[in-house]
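Section 5: illustrative case.
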């Protein structure tokens, strides 16, 4: 529907602009014929230049970046007709997904028990047939659940961590672009571009647990159209470690920080494996961001810290805080 609307709007705009320019040119030429040559030509050229400038201004108006939060780590990001789905979580109800519970105590040598996890909120409607790309931070089942693995089209392109290629390939997906940390993939969309750069994600600050948790990614996404740019950093499941902060700071200014929250794991043997409110405050201030849009909270029983904790701590910060309910949308320029 977005693509059809964009095509219709572009077609209508082009028709209107062509009529306006033709009408302007005809008027100026007719007037030019009825006045002294030098005077009329000078005015005609001025009017024609102004008409061209006006038409180019209409064309150069940058598109918005539209983000719909679908719950948990899942967002639908749209820019110039391109639709990107992050960490698809499509299961609902008492048996939304199946995974070990990092919030329960277990023997690290034996490993945790696998169980079902409950989704607390409804999944908003989403048109899975219009997607252009899946952006995967990592393939744990609380970020790429069983329903998504069975429902999404197998021909859908992915950007994902190297560590997760085999797992996603076994689920039947074929267009997998493994992006090492620090590398960038560029997409042209309409009159703009989207640059996606992989950022390392530290799921834990305990190096001995890294083999168990794996190596995921966050992503710095830059939207470019003409001279206008907008940059967001989606953290994925990471803590605000010095290595992550340094990797992000090296890439320039951040307009919007999208942190995964929930303070997951703090009651289990793994310890904290996603950020809490104090971590987000630290990260936002260190990166000097303009706005914070938290996700990975509220939707699932798995998340331990309520989003109200961030609301309290953010009241005296210099950056803005955007908190949404599932299904709501925001537009950024």
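Designed sequence:
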């Amino acid at each position: 529907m977005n693509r059809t609307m964009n095509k219709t709007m572009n077609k209508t705009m082009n028709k209107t602009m062509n009529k306006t320019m033709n009408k302007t040119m005809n008027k100026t030429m007719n007037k030019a014929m009825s006045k002294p040559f030098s005077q009329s030509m000078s005015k005609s050229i001025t009017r024609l230049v102004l008409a061209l400038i006006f038409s180019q201004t209409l064309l150069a108006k940058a598109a918005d970046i539209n983000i719909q939060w679908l719950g948990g780590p899942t967002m639908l990001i749209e820019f110039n007709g391109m639709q990107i789905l992050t960490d698809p979580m499509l299961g609902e109800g008492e048996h939304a997904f199946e995974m070990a519970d990092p919030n329960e105590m277990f023997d690290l040598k034996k490993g945790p028990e696998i169980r079902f996890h409950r989704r607390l909120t409804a999944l908003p409607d989403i048109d899975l047939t219009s997607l252009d790309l899946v952006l995967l931070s990592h393939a744990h089942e609380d970020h790429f659940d069983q329903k998504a693995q069975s429902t999404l089209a197998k021909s859908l392109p992915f950007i994902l961590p190297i560590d997760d290629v085999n797992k996603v390939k076994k689920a039947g997906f074929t267009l997998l672009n493994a992006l090492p940390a620090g590398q960038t993939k560029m997409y042209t969309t309409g009159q703009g571009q989207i640059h996606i750069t992989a950022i390392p994600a530290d799921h834990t600050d305990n190096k001995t647990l890294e083999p168990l948790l794996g190596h995921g990614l966050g992503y710095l996404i830059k939207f470019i159209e003409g001279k206008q740019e907008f940059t967001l950093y989606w953290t994925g499941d990471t803590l605000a470690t010095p290595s992550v902060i340094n990797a992000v700071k090296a890439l320039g200014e951040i307009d919007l920080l999208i942190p995964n929250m929930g303070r997951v794991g703090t009651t289990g043997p793994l310890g904290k494996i996603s950020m809490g409110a104090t971590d987000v405050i630290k990260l936002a201030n260190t990166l000097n961001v303009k706005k914070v849009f938290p996700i990975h909270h509220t939707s699932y029983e798995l998340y331990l810290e309520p989003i109200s904790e961030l609301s309290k701590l953010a009241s005296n910060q210099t950056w803005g805080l955007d908190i949404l309910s599932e299904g709501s949308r925001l537009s950024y320029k």
